[in-house]
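Researcher: We plan to redesign the surface later, but first we want a full-length starting point. Tokens attached.
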């Protein structure tokens, strides 16, 4: 009974998310991932819905800190204001450097941030999934670019990769990158 109650309480929180019954898929990640090449600015091209990420001109900047963690600085234009949020990324297992963990609060655990593929210079595909009570999962996926716009065939390639890894992209939407500051 209490599990059903928790699910009912959680549904409004994930209603704008992409959730599915069953366990999270376990996609392959970028082999021989090179964090140093990945650092820098990435622009959000398309994503699965994320209630914490509304607005336009969404971008992320990754930089190493002196303590070995990675600074994650996300920015967006939302409700007529430029907003930023800072988080921390870590590589929990150095044998799998493309499977990072990211947190935007000292009070929350690191969430998965898996780089499925990147060429480091133009495109990256990122995925994360959270299992809820082993009954369903909430997943997020991002297609990122080093510029605010990618060629349609590059976006198609990224979507096909996600589908091939078992990710449902039905709700994937383009991010508005028009009229953004440089």
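Model: Full-length starting sequence:
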């Amino acid at each position: 009974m209490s599990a059903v109650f928790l699910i009912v309480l959680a549904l409004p929180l994930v209603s704008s998310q992409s959730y599915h019954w069953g366990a999270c898929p376990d996609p392959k990640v970028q082999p021989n991932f090179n964090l140093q090449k990945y650092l820098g600015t990435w622009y959000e091209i398309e994503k699965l819905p994320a209630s914490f990420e509304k607005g336009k001109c969404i971008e992320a900047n990754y930089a190493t800190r002196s303590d070995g963690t990675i600074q994650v600085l996300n920015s967006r234009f939302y409700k007529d204001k430029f907003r930023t949020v800072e988080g921390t990324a870590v590589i929990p297992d150095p044998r799998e450097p493309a499977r990072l963990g990211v947190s935007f609060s000292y009070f929350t655990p690191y969430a998965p941030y898996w780089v499925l593929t990147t060429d480091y210079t133009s495109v990256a595909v990122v995925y994360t999934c959270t299992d809820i009570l082993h009954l369903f999962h909430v997943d997020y996926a991002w297609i990122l670019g080093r510029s605010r716009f990618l060629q349609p065939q590059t976006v198609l390639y990224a979507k096909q990769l996600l589908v091939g890894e078992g990710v449902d992209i039905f709700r994937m939407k383009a991010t508005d990158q028009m009229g953004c500051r440089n």
